[in-house]
Write a structure and sequence with these properties.
single chain; 726 residues; alpha/beta; eight-stranded mixed β-sheet; five-stranded antiparallel β-sheet; 25 helices; 20 strands; 50% helix
Length: 726
């Protein structure tokens, strides 16, 4: 091939997504994805086992309809307002209710056993040991140490060592208060833990403790019109969880009861002030009416006037009742509250009706007006007095037997099973997420890689494809094992053609050998140079195995490692490094000294010699030409392994003396651009590129190479087949 390489045609680039290709890619990496999913599942299982179980306690409350008639009427007026249960949700979570729970149960202090991160908790959970316990009777700290952790280390059941936030340590004893300063006191009642067990102690502010409870407390109404409220509380201690929730429910019911007592007390105070005054007013009105009648004689009130008098009396009675109700509401609500505003609005309506009746009475004769006025005063005051007496009795009963309008339907019980972590779900989700991430990563790598994956891409560069060498799993396994057991820097020491002659990669190299036999009939000499565009293409693998299969065919072959910077072919043949090519070219050794036996019949080898940074200068020495000329006469084939073209200029120098040049491209690794640039550089140096070897082809989603199973034609295979037929 003497043509200048050209870039790939645009047809090999496409923006379309081939979903079939993606699916085949996932199938090709199924083992990697499965391994990632397995690792994710194991990690999820370990996490769930190491996590502290979380329990949830539940309780139910019912908001009953208040029996107070006036409040019921007012609420009916505002039928579009929220139900009492919805208004009570915030009260359950108020600082008034939760603060009392904090005080009652000392929830402003936290005591937690301390384990080794992750594995300590995992080992403890798997062992089934009883949780260590530290019972604290009193724990008060200075303001500077609020919300800061203390560390308590158990010495034995009677003593301990306390590490303060400032890293000082003090020793304390069970049952005795430990005074650190005037504001910091700790009293431990009981220690049930092994020696060396550590606990973390934290004293929270009351506000912080309330916020911590809120995070674990859930208050939900069953519906907008439902009077049912569901409470739930989560925690790591099942018994403590139920105790805390019951305390919250009891405190909420208690404050609701106290609210009714407060309303009754306020109403009684108002009535106690009004009764003496009302009694005096009633007596005065009766005396005035009697005196006027004695003075004016017996007078009858017309029917119309009697109706007006009765209406006026009724209205004033309602006004009095609403005034009493207002006295109770003022302790509960602000004037802007809907219930309070409803009372004020009804009072306003009654006041207007009273003024209207007053105007009607004003139109009557003076004598009748005076009688009506005096009779009204008597009737109204008498009704009001009786009403106040009844109300006083009602409020006394209400205060004595206050129950509130909230009752506990279901108390919280100690939960038997944890609600978290859900081990099965976490394990499955972890496995799925890990598998999904692995799938995405595989697709990303496959879709973003620019390496050559088909012979068409090479031919698009106007380069011939000399051989397609499949990926050898055996070679990979041996190299991986060596890297695991030794520090070989990824360099192979396994000669595939000698160790496993039936491998498909070796059979492909045999096909390459046949191609070379015929191709070199018209070359200027029998010297073959094998190079690559960039490192890691596999040119040393091709060179060594090609030389081996040529020697196995009865040809006398000389293999020269011309990579005097990073060559390693001596590891494949178990030969010495020096003297080698660098010593031969520098005149420090003769060809006889440099040429080594490989242990493979008909195969001889010249190593790279001692590494040097002036390899280009040595290769330009005339001794290289003399060496190649003599070798071409003494050997049937001379194979030279050179450094990559794009890395150094060594290949361009060696290529001037050879009859044939082959380039090696690695499947999925060598890019078309690198191969094109390397070909251009060699062509500019007037080097004839016979073809390209595509090395490491994998049977995956991105090629259709169905490498022939040459192993089925090994010796004895026919006997096995005949036996199977029989």
């Amino acid at each position: 091939m003497n043509k200048q390489a050209t870039p790939p045609s645009p047809e090999y680039y496409s923006d379309e997504i081939d979903f079939g290709r993606q699916i085949r890619s996932l199938l090709a990496h199924k083992y990697k994805i499965a391994l990632a999913a397995l690792a994710g599942g194991i990690a999820g299982a370990v996490f769930s086992l190491a996590s502290t179980p979380v329990y949830r306690a539940d309780a139910m409350l019912e908001i009953e309809t208040r029996q107070n008639q006036i409040l019921t009427e007012i609420n009916n007026i505002f039928s579009n307002e929220s139900q009492p249960s919805e208004a009570e949700l915030e009260l359950v979570q108020s600082r008034m209710v939760l603060g009392k729970t904090v005080d009652d149960l000392q929830l402003d202090q936290l005591v937690e056993p301390k384990y080794f991160p992750v594995f300590g908790g995992l080992i403890h959970n798997l062992s089934g040991d009883i949780d260590p316990e530290l019972k604290i009777a009193d724990f008060e700290v200075s303001e500077d140490w609020i919300n800061l952790p203390f560390e308590l280390t158990v010495k034995n059941s009677k003593s301990y060592v306390l590490t303060l936030p400032d890293k000082r340590t003090v020793e304390g004893f069970t049952g005795k208060p430990l005074k650190i300063n005037n504001k910091t006191v700790l009293k431990v009642d009981r220690i049930l833990a092994d020696a060396g067990q550590k606990f973390t102690l934290t004293k929270f502010s009351k506000l912080s403790a309330i916020e911590n409870i809120k995070k674990q407390l859930s208050v939900v109404s069953k519906g907008k019109t439902s009077p049912i409220i569901n409470l739930s509380y989560t925690g790591t201690d099942p018994k403590e969880t139920s105790v805390i929730l019951n305390s919250i429910a009891d405190n909420y019911v208690g404050q609701n009861r106290e609210r009714d007592v407060q309303v009754a007390t306020s109403g009684l105070a108002f009535i106690s002030e009004e009764l003496p005054r009302m009694k005096e007013t009633l007596q005065e009105a009766e005396n005035k009416l009697n005196a006027y009648r004695e003075k004016s004689g017996s007078l009858d009130i017309p029917l119309e006037s009697k109706g007006a008098l009765e209406s006026l009396t009724n209205i004033e009675s309602q006004i009095t009742a609403l005034r009493t109700e207002e006295a109770g509401l003022v302790e509960m609500y602000t004037p802007e509250h809907p219930t309070y505003k409803a009372v004020l609005d009804k009072l306003s309506v009654l006041e207007r009706a009273k003024k209207k009746i007053d105007r009607q009475i004003a139109e009557l004769p003076n004598t009748q007006q005076e009688v009506i006025r005096l009779a009204r005063d008597v009737t109204t005051n008498q009704a009001t007095y009786v009403q106040l007496l009844n109300k006083q009795q009602e409020l006394n009963i209400m205060k004595a037997s206050a129950q509130g309008n909230v009752r506990i339907v279901d108390h919280a019980f100690v939960p038997e099973l944890p609600v978290a972590p859900r081990k099965t779900l976490i394990t499955l989700l972890s496995a799925l997420v890990a598998g999904a991430l692995a799938s995405v990563w595989c697709l990303f790598r496959e879709n973003t890689r620019q390496g050559i994956t088909s012979s068409d891409e090479i031919e698009a560069l106007d380069l011939e494809v000399s051989a397609l060498v499949p990926y050898s799993k055996i070679q990979q396994k041996r190299d991986t094992l060596k890297r695991t057991l030794t520090s070989s820097n990824g360099r192979s020491s396994y000669l595939l053609a000698n160790e496993n002659a039936t491998d498909t990669a070796v059979e492909a190299i045999r096909a390459l050998r046949t191609n070379i036999y015929f191709s070199m009939l018209d070359t200027k000499n029998n010297v073959l140079m094998i190079t690559g565009a960039a490192p890691e293409a596999g040119k040393s693998f091709i060179s060594s195995n090609l030389a081996t299969v040529m020697a196995q065919s009865g040809k006398k072959v000389l293999l020269i490692d011309a990579d005097m910077r990073k060559g390693y072919l001596e590891q494949l043949f178990s030969t010495h490094v020096a003297p080698g090519l660098s010593e031969l070219l520098s005149g420090e050794a003769s060809p006889v000294e440099a040429i080594q036996q490989t242990g493979i019949e008909n195969l001889f080898f010249i190593s790279h010699g001692n590494y040097t940074q002036s390899s280009s200068e040595l290769l330009m020495n005339k001794r290289l030409g003399d060496l190649i000329e003599q070798a071409s006469k003494r050997y049937d084939y001379v194979i030279i392994d050179t450094p990559p073209v794009l890395a150094v200029t060594d290949a361009a120098i060696v290529g001037q003396h050879v009859g044939m040049t082959l380039m090696v491209a690695r499947y999925g690794y060598t890019t078309a651009q690198d191969l094109d640039n390397a070909a251009r550089r060699l062509v500019q140096s007037n080097i004839n590129i016979k073809g390209v070897i595509l090395n490491g082809i994998k049977r995956d989603a991105f090629n259709s190479y169905n490498c022939y199973s040459y192993g089925s034609y090994t010796a004895g295979s026919d006997k096995k087949a005949a036996k199977s037929k029989g």
